[in-house]
Amino acid sequence: MSAGAVTMPRPALLGAIFVFNFIEFLSTGMTVFAAPAIMGHIGASPEEYATVSALYAAVAVLAISQMTVLLQRLGWRNYLLGAVLFYMLGAWVCASSGNGGGSVAMFAGGRLLMAMGGGVFMTVSRMMVNLIPPSPQRLQGIAAYGAALSGGLALGPWVAAKMLCHEAWGGMFLVLAALATVGALVAARWMPHDAVTLDGTPTRMHLFDAMLLGAGAAVTLYALQHLTYDWHGERARLMGHLLLGVGLLAAFALLHARRRAPFLHLAVVRSPRYRLGLVIFSVCYAMLGMVNTLLPQVVQKGLGVGLEQAGELQGIGLLATIIAFIVMLELVKRRPHPTKFFVTGFLMLALLGWRFATLDPRAYAWEAVIFWLGLFGAFLTLGMATTAIHSFKELQADNVVFSNAQQLKNMLGQAGLALGVGMTNIGLQERTALHASRLAEKSAPLLDGGAELTRQAGLLAGQDLFWIVMWVGLAGAALLALQRRFD
C-alpha cells in the first residue's frame, strides 16, 4: 500500500497526531512541575527519584530506537495498540503507587512501563504526518503536531497544580491514561494494518547492538541525573560512570554503523543540515530542562507564590506558545526561510533570562513574570518547530531513513533534557551554598531558623543561572543569524 492509498479519515488522522504528541509534552510539563510532590507521596529521596528519571529516559531511548523495526513487523494498528497498552498499565501503576503499601519500586516499575509504550509517542506522531500523501495538505499534519507541542507545554504545570492542590496527585497519570485510550480507539478503528510509509528499506533488531545502546543510555543518563548528589562527595565514581556510558554508546555507534539492515541508519549524521538540526534541538531540550528546574526556585521560593498559583501562572504564561505557533504557521506559508524564526526565538530566550536574572523579589508575580514566561514558550515553539521543518529536507526520499532521523533526534532530546536538569541542579547547589554563606556573615541572629536566609539564597542562586540562560540566547541568536545550512 502506498502513502496515497491510506483511507483513514483526515480528522481522525489529525486527531491521532495531536493526541500522541500532546501526551508527550503534557507528561513532561506535569512530571517536572510536580516532582517534589511526587517524591513526598511515594517516599522517594531526590537521589532515588533521579535514578527513576534516568531509567525512564534510557528505556524511552531504547523504545524509540526499535520503533521502525517493530512498525515494519506489526503494522501501524498493532504497534500503536501494544504501545498504548504498556503506557496505560504503567500509568495505572504510577497512580496507585502512593496509595497504602505503595513504594518507590512500584512507581519506578510504572514509569518504566510508560517509557516502553509512550517513549515513542512523539516520534510516532511525527511519522503519522507522512500518512498524508505528499502535498500542501501535509501542513495540516504539521499544524496538529505543533499545536500538541504548544498545548502540552502550556497545560502541563496547570493540570499538575490542580491535581496536587486537590490531593489527587495520581490523577495526573490517570489523565495521561485517558488520553492514551483516545489514541487507542483511533488506532483500532482507522489505523492501517500494515507498515504503510515504512515498507521500504528493511531493518533488523540487532539484539547485541540494542543491549549496548540501552546500557550506554542508562549509565550515561544515570550519571547526568546524579550530578547534583555526587559531584562533591563521589566525583571520581560519577565521572567513571559517565565515561563508561559514553564508551558503551561509542561502541554501539562503531558496531551498528557496519550492520546490514540496521535499526538506526547512523549515516544520516553525515548531512550538515541534519547535524545542525540535532544541535539546535538538543539545546532547546537542555533549555527546557534548565528553565523548568529554575522556575520553581525563583517563582515559588523567591516570590513566595503558592503551588496552585505557580501552576496557573506558568500555564497562562505559556499559552503564548500556542499564539507563537499560529503566527509562525501563517508566516512560514509565505516566507519559509528559517533564520528570522531562529533569531527571534533565541532573542526571546535571552530576554527571559535577563528578566528573571534581575527580578525584584518584592514584585507582584502576575505582573512581573507572566509576559516573560510567554517568551519562553515562544522560544520553544520557534526553535523546535523551525528545526523540525527544515533539518530533514535531505532525508525525505526514503521514509525509513527519515524515520530513523526522527528517532535519533528524539533520543538525543532525552539526553539534552537530562543534561539541562543535572547541570542546573549542580549550579543551584553551588550558588545557594555560596549565597547562604555570604548572607549568614552579614545577617543578625536568625529568629526564624534560617528560613528567610534560605529563601534569599535560593532566589539569588536561581538568578545567577538565569544569566547563563540569557547568554545562551544571545549566542544562539548570533550564531544562527550567520548559519547558511538551511538556506
Protein model, in words:
- By secondary structure, the protein is mainly alpha-helical.
- It folds into 3 domains: 8-199, MFS general substrate transporter like domains (Growth Hormone, Chain: A, Up-down Bundle), CATH 1.20.1250.20; 207-258; 272-439 and 451-487, MFS general substrate transporter like domains (Growth Hormone, Chain: A), CATH 1.20.1250.20.
- The protein has 18 helices and no strands.
- The protein has helices at 10-33, 35-42, 46-65, 67-96, 104-118, 121-128, 138-165, 171-190, 207-225, 227-230, 235-256, 272-302, 307-317, 320-334, 339-357, 365-390, 399-442, 451-482.
- Helix 4 packs antiparallel against helix 8 (171-190).
- It is globular and about 75 Å long.
Short description:
The protein has 487 residues and is mostly helical.
What profile does the largest beta sheet have?
none
Task: Report the CATH superfamily of the largest domain.
Answer: MFS general substrate transporter like domains
Tell me which CATH architecture of the largest domain applies here. Answer: Up-down Bundle
Mean pLDDT: 86
- Rg, rounded, reads 22 Å
Distance between the termini: 34 Å
Instruction: Tally the beta strands.
Output: 0
Strand content: under 5%
